[in-house]
Amino acid sequence: MEHLEYQEGRTELAAFGEFPLIERLTDGFVPKNKSTRLGVGDDAAVLGTGKVKTLVTGDMLVEGVNFDMMYTPLRHLGYKAVAINLSDIAAMNGLPRQVLVNVAVSNRYSVEALEELYAGIRLCCDRYDVDLVGGDLATSRAGMVLSVTAIGEADEDAITYRSGARMHDLICVSGDLGSAYSGLLVLEREKVTYQANPDFKPDLDGYDYVLERFLKPEPRLDIVKLLKEKGIVPTSMIDVSDGLASELLHICKQSNCGCEIYEERLPIDYQTTRVCSEMSNNMLPVSNALNGGEDYELLFTIKQQDYEKIKDCDEVHIIGHITEAGSPAVMVTPQNTTIQLRAQGWQCNE
Amino acid sequence: MEHLEYQEGRTELAAFGEFPLIERLTDGFVPKNKSTRLGVGDDAAVLGTGKVKTLVTGDMLVEGVNFDMMYTPLRHLGYKAVAINLSDIAAMNGLPRQVLVNVAVSNRYSVEALEELYAGIRLCCDRYDVDLVGGDLATSRAGMVLSVTAIGEADEDAITYRSGARMHDLICVSGDLGSAYSGLLVLEREKVTYQANPDFKPDLDGYDYVLERFLKPEPRLDIVKLLKEKGIVPTSMIDVSDGLASELLHICKQSNCGCEIYEERLPIDYQTTRVCSEMSNNMLPVSNALNGGEDYELLFTIKQQDYEKIKDCDEVHIIGHITEAGSPAVMVTPQNTTIQLRAQGWQCNE
User: Fold this and answer.
1) What is the mean pLDDT of chain A?
2) For the domain bounded by A170-340, which CATH number is listed?
């Protein structure tokens, strides 16, 4: 009998990022079933032998790491836990059909608290015509952990991977970027003030959009439907969960290409700009857009010939183009300087 | 801004059991998609519109609640986390094809520790021809949380629910019962001794079978294959995760029937009997068999006419029969007294 944490030759988790570590741990798992079309490495796995494929994806949310109960209403949390998984199905150009929700809670939570959580889960399921088909309820020693699996479907011909971007393809993004992170910045600011003075009444007027973006994101299934209507199958797609820069680098790596985006083309809401201007460290809105994360917008590439079909869609912004293999991933500023993109990911809340 | 735990009108989670609480929380979720054939309420959800259905199930394991790192090798933990989910697919009379594994860990764990965990995951995947197709790696504040989703398939005609048992059906169980719990009792005993005296070397000789049953359970996919070979489709089935009594009550409730099992028919290994005899509280082996839990054997009912097909299978034991609606679930002792079954579930490790 012994304590099974390894003391000798110990490598700290911090020595790896999340993605290199997942790659290392899952390296050598070779699919054996003919129904496994794609395993680890994209927004969702692709399963099935027929023309319509099943898409499966899962995400875990940990209290104190991925959400702070200080300012996260449980109803919003339930909604968000489902929504971000539906976003991964959307990122494969698919439509979600079912979710399973596993919840671990400590006895700090009441039955009424769980009912609030499930009310949010139900709201998101109802809104996106998704069925809750299972889940486990476990006891935790500390706080709440949510693990959601989403199942969706897509025609084989429509499924969009991270690996399909080709030189000259146009880079598109839906909605706007950086607003969710701006919402988090506001909440963190108010939390600090409240902790210093519990009589303080936070004033959240004028921040409604960025707060909703953070607390209750929406999966862009409307974009999946729009693309279908317009007859466009993107060449690659990913959802923006860790920030635009990180996601662009995923696409470039998996498609073996570079990219060039234009700073002035990045869609940024005025509330995002306002929040940035209020921060003491002179935060630039473009930095939020590149690195903020949790926007759950769709980032995708299309062939140049599809430009005419999409150019008038208000919710889609063309922000750049794909460059050849070996080129870097860069952003061109209005002053025509070039900045290499780096994945800073999503670090504020950890 | 406020702390969002509800203080007024608070109902403690302990006021509900797990299953009534899940029922309460998921009540009113009505499936909307035609591909959702069965949602919450069985070992797995049943999805798809074709003849071959997709089965999906998920489970969560929390450190300090569902497993104790003091005596759980990480390789075994990875194996078990996958195995118990494959068992839920087996309980639908299906075969597993893929798993997704979400892991949350604190920085107490090293990269090498995670590699051990994944080595166990891989071992179980390889043994049962299952593909690892996804998963999330999250940060936890305390300990490890595992959440596994298993995906399987079964012909529509072969899928076995908890609700199909009918009067006079024979009740069968695979393997033996109570051995996993006996393994846990041994580990808990040695842990207490070790904590009192860290120089103590635990002597686990002669307990190998019960220890393996607890630390490294096997899903009974061999029984699913055997039933197919013999041309038997069970009328109902469930896997024994919370103890025979609890599972029988699930079948009786969902099939609207009673049952009668015979104490002398319960399959109990000699190591289970030995462990019970060593316990100071005069534990009865039959009590372990009824309430121990974590055996991951299959409990199923078959039509009487299938008796000849199965009577010579060593791994299947006929322990009783189904009685009419309104009858209780009972065990008949060798002295011919009748004991009503109650769900004590699985409480030791919580």
Assistant:
1) 91
2) 3.90.650.10
